[in-house]
Amino acid sequence: VTWCMLEISTAERQKLIDPLCANQFRETILNVQTNFEELFDDADQPLSFAYYHFAFFLSAVYLPLFAMSSALDAGIGDAAYWVTDVVSGFIVCLQAIFVVGLRVLAESLSAPYGANVDSLSVLHYITHTWEMSNRIIGAIERDIVDPKTEETMCLGACLQHKMRQEEIQEVNKEFIVEDGGTHHESTESSFNRSPHVTK
């Protein structure tokens, strides 16, 4: 960030960019710095101890007790109800998956920028942006346009624009819509069909 600020100041001092453009660059760089600070602040915030403790408590205490309760309710011998037992076993599996998922989620939230598949790839984005910036910086600079040539091009563009406006005014005078007449052609279409206009 400091290097970018120095480059902007150098370019502004050498009259390579105007002050307005320099201020826009500074605001953009400061916004990027603020976003990075927010990312690091989110990573430094510890996960709520109550949530983390509750997830491990469910894994260590609730799941075994729930499984034992379902197993004791299962019938044997003549009192066997296979449908009830299968449904109870399915519910136990769902409870285990849900609770273990909460615990894994707590671990992922405690390290959001890790190397796991579901982690945020902030470092990858930074590296990619750095590589693309190096490509732009290392590219061959084009020749600077001669100020006189640039001034001539601007004058030619202004002259063409002025001539176009005059031709449009002439076409508007020729195609005035009369009351009850049949000449209802638009200005733009009439101008495009005018023999005076060279495309």
Look at the helices and sheets and give the structural class: mainly alpha
Number of strands: 0
What is the strand content?
Answer: under 5%
Distance between the termini: 49 Å
Gyration radius (Cα, Å) is 36 Å
Characterize the largest beta sheet: strand count, sense, and whether it forms a barrel: none
The ordered string of helix (H) and strand (E) elements is HHHHHHH
Number of domains: 3
Descriptive notes:
It is a single chain. The protein has 199 residues and is mainly α. The chain has three domains: 1-45; 47-140; 147-193. It is 72% helix and 0% strand. The chain has seven helices and no strands. It has helices at 2-13, 19-44, 49-73, 82-110, 122-138, 147-174, 187-193. Helix 1 runs antiparallel to helix 2, helix 3 runs antiparallel to helix 4 (82-110) and helix 6 crosses helix 7. The chain is elongated and about 105 Å long. The two termini are 49 Å apart. Residues 178-199 have low confidence and may be disordered. Keywords: Membrane, Transmembrane, Transmembrane helix. The chain crosses the membrane at residues 49-67, 79-102.
Task: Please write out the topology.
Blueprint: H1 2-13, H2 19-44, H3 49-73, H4 82-110, H5 122-138, H6 147-174, H7 187-193
Helix pairs in contact: 1-2, 3-4, 6-7
